[in-house]
Amino acid sequence: MTIMVRDLPAEERPREKLLGYGASALSNAELLAILLRTGTSKQSVLGIADEVLAHYKERGIAGMVHMAPAELAAIRGIGMAKAATIVAAVELGRRLAVRTAEQIQVVHGPEDAAQFAMPRFRFEQKEHFAVMLLNTKNHILGLKEVSMGSLQASVVHPREVFRAAIDYAAASMILLHNHPSGDPSPSREDIAVTQRLVKAGRIMDIPVLDHIILGDCRFLSLKEKGMMS
After folding, report:
1. Which intervals hold domain MPN (predicted)?
2. How many domains does the chain have?
């Protein structure tokens, strides 16, 4: 027998639970159920929410960032209208994270640089290599994407890296790239690329201060690990 939301005690229904205890008290399925609003005659809205989350089980909830409305609408109990609501909510959350990160204007250390870049690259399914461009007081002038590679590697050309620095009249730069696996441990190629760009920076008189690898809510600084040279 399917238990519908209307059959639950009032304090256990997602909407009432949110209003009474705050959004943080709800599970992912309960939050999604509020967006979906209604179920079907054969399945409760919580059941449909569970099916959506199960669809993205391998990628985790982060996989929802890349979902298309048509992909969602193919799940039983979700039409295009509900799919559009979910996609819109996820995009609002992503934009909020980016907007919050943009409040960081000065880089005092690797954590500032990582927090600034994390919302942009955390959920990407391919490697993206970017440079954070700084002035003489380490104020952020911009974050310029230089290349996009496969899931295994990025192809980084020094001329493109330093062209961005020259365009922004940067005094220094921080290299950044993401690991789609979520593990920020550096590969041999990561270290080799870093050392090549550090040498080029000395010649160009635009020092490379660090290379930060972004994982899933974590990061690694090659400078802190002593891998810059």
Report:
1. 106-228
2. 2
